[in-house]
Design a protein that fits this description.
The chain is α+β, with helices and mostly antiparallel strands and about 290 residues long. Helices cover about 25% and strands about 25% of the residues.
């Protein structure tokens, strides 16, 4: 029988709690739900006000993995939704605004992906993102070197950057921005990616072409396009183990000489939050938002 749980006055049917979703560690769906419940305080602020794309993996990462962008069938009427612009026309998408909505969505077994703009102001980007993706034999260690260069380059324009792991093999660099469209932010991000390649030609590539990427870090600036989404801070990823897209300190980036040092799993996050709080909290403060030159 599917247990019924009450969360903030909402009744939720949480199913298959004993099901193993991460075969490499035996991490179950019940543990996934517990992770999100205990991480909600730092995760929810990065979800609120943003339409969410779900990358679902209901049978684990070895099963079917698929994106759900429109409101899923059976979504409770108390879950907030919003009409968002798309090139093919407006679409109705979910907003995860509270703990009850988070637990409902987590029960679907999903990665959380969000745009770099808020639904109330879709014409203005409020975040800039670089997705640093290493091509083997390069690893996150090389990503850290590139991230440090980008941090200084952004700082020269008055923009403060914050790192998090991708939760797979790379690194994400985020910054709060204001006063620009997604097109303008994309243009600026591409400019910096090109500059990074010129400064570190043996290490960086700014084009997606596969045969250019072995041994280099692809600085993916295209995630700033209005239509695209990026893994939300603290989301679990559909990997063999319950990897997390985890905020990290710049000291950790500077001192990373081994990929294992930036490999964080679900059980690692609660102690990190106790020690550091939300390392990405400045992204939520508009006073920290920089204007593009």
């Amino acid at each position: 029988m599917t247990p019924i749980t009450e969360v903030e006055g909402r009744r939720l049917a949480l199913s298959n709690l004993e099901k193993v979703l991460y075969p490499a560690t035996g991490f179950t769906k019940g543990e996934v739900l517990h992770y999100y419940a205990t991480t909600a305080e730092v995760l929810l602020p990065h979800l609120r006000g943003r339409s969410v794309s779900f990358l679902r993996y209901p049978d684990g990462p070895d099963g079917q993995v698929f994106f759900t962008k429109n409101v899923p069938p059976g979504t409770p009427d108390w879950v907030t939704t919003a009409e968002v612009p798309r090139s093919e026309g407006p679409a109705l998408m979910v907003l995860v605004q509270d703990l009850a909505s988070l637990m409902w969505a987590a029960n679907l077994v999903t990665e959380f992906h969000t745009h770099q703009w808020l639904v109330d102001t879709p014409d203005e980007a409020d975040r800039l993102v670089f997705d640093l993706d290493p091509g083997a034999p390069a690893t996150v260690v090389e990503c850290c070197e590139v991230a440090l260069w980008l941090r200084e380059r952004l700082a020269a324009d008055g923009i403060e950057a914050y790192p998090k792991t991708a939760g797979s093999k790379g690194l994400h660099l985020l910054a709060a921005v204001r006063g620009s469209s997604s097109d303008r932010v994309s243009e600026y991000a591409k400019q910096l990616a090109v500059e990074a390649e010129r400064a570190m030609p043996r290490l960086v590539v700014h084009r997606m072409t596969r045969n250019l990427r072995p041994g280099k870090v692809f600085v993916d600036w295209s995630q700033n396009a209005a239509r695209k989404t990026t893994a939300t801070p603290y989301t679990l990823r559909a990997r063999a183990r319950p990897s997390v897209s985890a905020p990290v300190t710049w000291t950790e980036v500077e001192e990373c000489g081994d990929p294992a040092r930036l490999d964080f799993q679900a059980p690692d996050i609660a102690p990190r939050v106790r020690d550091h709080g939300d390392l990405l909290a400045p992204l939520l403060d508009r006073q920290h938002a920089g204007a593009l030159p």
